[in-house]
Design brief:
alpha/beta; Rossmann fold; eight-stranded mixed β-sheet; 8 strands; 32% helix; disordered N terminus; binds S-adenosylmethionine; methyltransferase; Methyltransferase domain-containing protein; Methyltransf_11; transferase
Length: 217
């Protein structure tokens, strides 16, 4: 059985969610198929998923814990403008290089309280970050308040590993988004090996939560 996690397998097996961990991981982060999207088939698979999850019309996307910007790049290729937030300057340096010349800006900050002022977004995109935040429920409430009317949360998460599983189950995450959403889509992703560059046996999924009205943080 696979015990792979969304983390770089060349780094220590028990990820430390500290900023220092991600600073050190930035140099090799894109080596994983689903991180760097270097394999055209993996890249195409994520592009197709993102196109289905993000708004059809070009809009403003806030990518929180954006890492090296692989999903941000796909979003700009689909016509969106991206603001990426990450607390790792090393990750952001790679994102800025990857998206040079594209409609994207990157700022250092906390994903739970992104430094975006009064700006509002058509989608908040978060892959493999929410589970590690100290208070996922509070973060989700804050993110919902950052959405423009009709906006959506696009959350890609999972529960990885078997002996010491980490992450959020789909049931746990949909329970957290239920009070915020007028409509929620749960998309299982474990059965699509192209997304991961290999077969996986743990729970991987996306949740698209459509938030009807702006809510207080
Ligand atoms: C598993 S990586 C995911 C990167 C990217 N979302 C992706 O899917 O490729 C986790 C990222 O979240 C960032 N991160 C973790 N906790 C954070 C926080 N509290 N605020 C901002 N960024 C955070 C890390 O620096 C790292 O770049």
């Amino acid at each position: 059985m696979s015990t792979d996690t969304p983390f770089d397998r060349a780094t220590p097996p028990l990820p430390d969610p500290s900023a220092a961990y991600w600073q050190a991981a930035a140099a090799t982060y894109d080596d994983e198929p689903d991180h760097g999207l270097g394999d055209p088939a993996v890249r195409a698979a994520w592009a197709a998923r993102l196109r289905a999850w993000l708004p059809a019309a070009p809009g403003d996307v806030l990518d929180l814990g954006c890492g090296t910007g692989s999903l941000a790049l796909l979003a700009t290729e689909q016509g969106h403008r991206v603001t990426g937030v990450d607390r790792s300057p090393a990750m952001l340096a790679r994102a800025r290089t990857k998206l040079a010349g594209r409609p994207a800006t990157f700022v250092v900050g906390d994903a739970a309280q992104p430094p975006v002022g009064e700006r509002r977004f058509d989608a908040v995109l978060v892959r493999h970050v929410l589970w590690a935040l100290p208070d996922p429920s509070a973060a989700l409430h804050h993110w919902a308040a950052l959405l423009a009317p009709g906006g959506r949360l696009v959350l890609v998460e999972g529960r990885w590993g078997e002996s010491a599983p980490m992450g959020l189950t789909a049931a746990e995450l949909t329970a957290l988004t239920a009070p915020l959403a007028s409509r929620t889509e749960l998309i299982p992703l474990s059965g699509d090996p192209t997304l991961w560059g290999r077969e996986v046996s743990d729970e991987r999924y996306a949740v698209v939560a459509h938030v009807a009205a702006r809510r207080g943080a």
